[in-house]
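for the writeup, i need someone to sanity check this before i put it in the appendix. the sequnce is what the collaborator sent (i think, or maybe the updated version? ugh). structure was predicted straight from it, no edits. if anything looks off just tell me and ill rerun, i have time this weekend
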Amino acid sequence: MSSDADGYTRIMRWLPNRLLYSTILGKWASHKKPRSKDPNQGCETHVAFNDDKTLWRSVWLRKATLLSFTALFTAIWISLLVLWRYDINHIGFALTVSSSHYSWAYGPTVLLTVIISLWRQVDYYCKVTQPWKEMDSNAAEASRSLLLDYISPLQIKSLYTATKNGHWAVTASTLGFMILKIATVVSTVLVQPSPTLLSKTIPVVMNSQFNESTFWDFVVPYYERPDFDFKHRLPRNPSYIVSSTGPLYVYEAILKNGLSYPNGTIRGNVFRSVNVPKTVDGIESLTTQTTVFTSNISCETSFTTPRDGIRSDWASGLATIETPTCLAKGFKVAGWVKNELQPKKDPRYLIAHTFTTVDCSGNHTMPSPRPKQASLNYSKMGALQDIRLAVIMHNFTVPERYPHSYTDPFLDYTIPLGATLTRTSATLCKVNYTLGDFPLDQNIAQAAFSLDMSKMDGMKSKFNNLTGLELGEAMFSLLAQHYESFQTTNMFELMRASLQDSLPGSDYEPLMDSETQKSSATEVLGGLMAQMVQQFLVVPDATIANGTAVVSETRLHIQLSSLWVMVSAFIISSFLPLVILFSLKDGGVSQNPTSVAAHAAILATSTGLQSLLKDTATLRTSELANWLGGHLFKTRVDTQGSFYIQPIGSAPLFNRTREALTRRETHALERGSDIQTDSHNATRIPLMHPGDVRSKGGFWIPFTVQYPFITLALAFPILAIGGLEALYQVSERNRGLTDTNHDVRVYAGYLTSFIAFVISSILNSVDFAFASFAPFSALCSRAEPYPRSTLINLVGKMPPWALYHAYRSRQVGAALSIVSALIGSVLAVIASGLWLDQPQELTAGLTMSSASTWHFQRLENISDYTSAANTFSMLHYYGGEQPLGTWENLVFPTLNGIKIDSEKWATNLSTMCTNTDATPCQYSLTVPALRPSLYCESGPPERFLTGESDSLGPDELNPLIIGLPEHCLNTVPTYYIPFDGGVNENPDWIGVFSEVSTGPRTINNVSIGVNKSISGSTSGCPSIAVGFGGPLGPHLHKSDFSILACYQKVELVNTTVNFNYLQQDRGLLGAGNILQAPIIEEADTKYLKNSVDGTDTFFFSGIGPLIKSLPNTGFTQVDNSTLKLDPVFSALVRGPNVTALEKLSGPNRTEKLKSAVSDFYTKYMVLVMNSDSFRWQAQSGNSSIKQDQFNGTVTFEVSRLTVDFASKLTLQIMLASIVVLTALAFWLVELRGMLPRNPCSIVSVMALLADSRMCSRDFVPPGSEWRSEDDLAQLFEGRNIKLGWWDRGDSHQVGEQRGCFGIDIGDPVSLGFRNRKAKKDGKQE
C-alpha cells in the first residue's frame, strides 16, 4: 500500500467522525430533489409502493398484542388490589384446596415466569425493529441504524442507549423486562401463611342452669328442724339450718390455699357454664351469652366512736350501728362474740369482734323478736324488712396486771376490768343480687374465664321466690352453724385471708381500718354468696346455644411489601405497551429481518450498500464503525416495489480523482474496481481499502462464552448445590436456621429468588451467545447442510419452539443450552417453596433452686392442720383441683432462680420464657418431692382386741380395748378407742379412725375429750389405729373385725416433672401447671427419719382438725347398710372410689382396708405438708436455708425458618442438570474462530454477504425481499451455503492470503474465520 494510503489510514483512525458527519449531513440537507432514478445506483426518490407489499411488523408488536399486554397488566394490578381487600375483609385466605405450601407458593411466580417469557418476545422484536424503524423515518448514522445493537448488550446498557437515542419503544420494552423481573422476585413471597385468629359462630352446650327450688333442699328454716341442736353457743338461733358446709370450705380454700374458682364462678359472680366443643380445632377463646348471677353487696362504715359505754354494752352482748341508712342502738348481738388477747403486743390489747345480723327496718333501740316463719320470706309480713349483716370490732388496751394466759377460743363476754377502749370499727352490709345476660369469655389455653359486665343483653331480673334477704340470712346461718360446731373458720378468718398481704398469727389489727374492713367484708360476702349459689342453685343442663369462637387457623395473607412493589410494577408496565404501540406505528422492513436469508434478500436490492460493504467481512465492529462513519442510511421502496437500504453521501477523504491514482491503484482500476464519477464526470475510485482500517486481528467470541464467564456459570450452580445442602444440614441440626418473623421470611424469600435470577440471567447470557451463533454454526458445519440453515433464528423464538428448531437443525449444543436456560427460568419458581415456617421445640439446659425447706417440727401448729383439713373436706366432697405445690400424693418444694443455657440457639430462651405474652416455656426438671404414706400392720383380731370372750355383746363395745404391738406393750399396754355412737341404736357396721399416743405426748381425741399426757418411749410405736367391723348382731365376734396399727412415714422421692412455669404460680408446682403425671424413680426413694429418736416414724397430730372439718353424718345409708361412723371413717367410705363395705372387713379383707386407709391419709397429709409453716420459705438474708440446685431442660415451641427437603432436593437436581447441560453445550458448540465480530447488528451480517453470490440476481430474483420465510427456504433449498474463506480470482489480496471471507454458495477453502478445513469429496483436507 502506498504512503498516501497509509497516511489516510492514520487520518481515519484519529480524525473525529463528527467532522465527516457534519459534512455529509450538510450535503444531504442541500439535496432537495432526487438525482438518480436507477435503484441500483441508490435512487433517492421516495414513492408509494403497491398495496400488496406492506412493511413487516412482528405479531408481538401489533396493536392487538400490545393492547392485550396492557389489559393483562391492568387486570393483574387490579386483581392484586382486590385480593388485598379480600384479605383484609376476610382475614386471609383459607387453605381449603391444599395445605401444601407448593400450591400457593409456586402460583404467582409461575404466572410471572410465563409473562416474562412472553414479554421477552416483545422486547426482542422491539430491539430488532428499531434500527429499521430509524432508517425508515429518516437518514440515520450507522451507529443509529446498521450498527445499532440493542440485543446483545446488558439490559441496563440497552436501556441507557435507547433512552439517549430517543428510541422509546426499546426503552419501554427493556424497562418492562426489568420491572417484570423485579416483580417476579418479590412474587415469591407474595402469599405467606401465618396463624390467624378467626371469629366463628359454633354450637355450644350450656352445662348448667339456675334452679331456685333446689336452694331449699340445702337451706331449711330453723323452725322446721326442732331436733337440730346448736348447743346454745349463740345468743339466739339462726333463721336457717344449712345442711352443707361446702360453699364455706370451697371459698376458704380459694382464699387460703389459692385454689382456682370452681367452674361457673368468678369472684362474686355465678354463670351458666359452657362446654367447649371438641369438634372444632384450634379454639383460642369462646364467647357465649350466658345468664350471670351477680352478688350485690353494698357496705357502709358505721359512725360509732369510742365511748365508755361500749365496754359495758359489749359485756352484755349489746352493740350499736349508725350509718347513713341505718340506726340500730343497743341491739342484741345475734352472732358469736369473741375476745382475743394479744399479750405479746406492746401495749397489750384485746380485740373483741362479732359477725351478726342487724335489723335496719326502722330506727329503734331494741328490735322485737322476729317470728320463726319470717325468715322464709320477709315480704309475706306485709312490710319488707331490712335485715343486714354487720362486722363489729373493738380494740381494748389491757392492763399489765391482767394474766397473760387469759384466752377463750370460744365464747366470753367478759372484758377485763381496767381495759380501755381505744378504737372501734364496724361495717354494715346489705345483701342483694341481680340476674342478667352477659358475654362470657373463656381463654381455652389458660382455662380462664372473664365476664364483660358492661355489655348486658336485656334487663336485670331476680329469682321469683328467692330474695337477697334470704341469701344473706342463709350466709349468716352457714357461718354461725360452722362456728357453733367448734370450727375456727369464721367471717374474720375469711376477711384476713382476703387481704393481699398475709397476716401473721391471729392479728386482726389491719381489719380495724374502716376502709380495709369495708372492702374485705364486701369481697368475702360476695364471694361466699357466689359459692353458695353455685352449689345450691345450679343444676346440670344440656341446652344447645350459639357461641362465638376465636379459632387459630393457618391462613394465607398478602405480604404488603411484595404487594405494593408488584402493584407499582404492573401499573407502570400497563403503560409500556402503549408507548411501544405509538413509538413503532409502522413497520420499517420488508420482512422478518432476523435470518441470514432475509439479510441476503434485502442486501441484493441494496447495491449501493453492497458496494460499500465489499471486502468488509473480516472487519471488527469498531472497524466497521470507522468504515461507515461518513455515511447515512435510509430505507426506501422504489417505483418497482423494491425495498432497499440506500447509503447517502460519500466520505470525501475516501475518494480521489483518476489523475491522482498511484500505479497500483490504476492496476486495481483496470481489474474492475469500483469507479465513481462526480458531477463533472471526473473518475473517482475509493481512496482506501477496508483492509486499511483494520486495527485488530483474530476472531471474536462473546464474553459470556469465554472461559472466565463459563467458569462462573458452572461455579454458581455448584456453589448453590453445596450451599443448599449446608443450609439443610444446619437447619436439621439446629431445628431451623433462625426464629421466624415477618421480615425474616420475606427477606429469605427475596434472597433466594434473587440468587435464582442471578443464575438464570447467567444461563440466559450463555444461551443467548449459543443461540446467536447457531445460524453461523450451522453454516460452518462439515456435515451435509441443513435445508433451512439460512433461516435459523433461535434468539427470536419461544423456548419450546427454539428447542424444536435447534433439534431440527442438528444444533445439539444450542439445544442443550436452551434446556439449561429453561431449567434456569424455573429455579425461581422452585425457590419460592424452599423456606418453611415450622414450629420447632428448642431445648436448652436449665438450673433452678429451691426457695423452701421442710420444717417438720412446725407441724405442731394446729392452724396449719385446720386449713388443710378444711381444704381436704372441700376436695373430698365437692371435687376440684389440688392446690399448687401438690400433685396427687406428692408435695413439691418451692422453686426459683431460673437459669437457662441457650447459647447454642439464636433464640434467647431466657427472654422468651419470661415474656408473658408468648407461649410459656415447658420445663422438665428432676426435683425431689415428699410422699407421705401410712404403713399399717394387721394380724389376728385377738392380737389387738383384748377381752376374755371372743363374743362381744353390745355392752362390751363401749369402749373397745385395742392392744398395741408387742414392742410397745412395755410403754402403753392398751388404749381405749371408742366406736363413735351408742350401741343401743344397733348399727349394722361400726368403724373408727383415730390417733394413738404412745409416748411422752399428749393424747388429743376430740371425739371423747381425752387430753392427757403419757410417759414412755415412742420408738417404733404406731400413731394411728383403724378398726372396722360388722355386721352387728346379738354378738360381735372378734373375727368380724379388721384392726390396723398404722405408722406415719414420709418418703423422699426423685421425680421428673414437666411443667409450665408462670410468675403467678409463685414457684409452686401443681395441677395448674404440671403438663403430665410426674415420673417417679421408685428405685431411688428413701424414708426420712425424725429428729427425736432417729426412726422413720413420725407423729403428726392432725386427726382432730380433720374430724372438726368433716360433717357429722349421724345415721347414713351406704350400700344398703345403716352406718353411724366417726366423721373420718364416714368420709373414708362416702368419698370418691368407695370400696364396698363387705370388702373392708372380715378374714382376708384387710389389704383393701389398708389401701383405702393409706390413700385417704395420704391425700390429707399432702395438704398438711403443703402448708406455709411446713413449707418454710427462704427469706432474703436467711442463710440457714440451703438452696438446693435442680437440673433439667427447658423447651420452647417457636416458629423456625427451615429448609424444605423436597424443594431443596429439586433445586439441587435442577442445578446439577444445569451444570451438566451447560458444560456439554460449551463442549459441543464450536464458537471459537467462527466469526470476526458480534453478529447481532444489521451490517455485521450483511458484511458477510456483501461478496457473496447469494446477493446476486442469479440467486435472488427481484421481490425476494418481500418473501416469507417459507418462500426464502424454497429459494435457497438445495444450495450448499457455507461460512468460511473463499478462493476467488478477482478477490483482493489480504495480507499474504488471496481470497475473501463470508457466506457464499459452494465449498469454501476453509470453514469459519479461523481457517478450519472443509470436507472435500467426503474427506477432510
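The mean pLDDT is 75. The longest strand covers residues 420-443.
thx in advance!!
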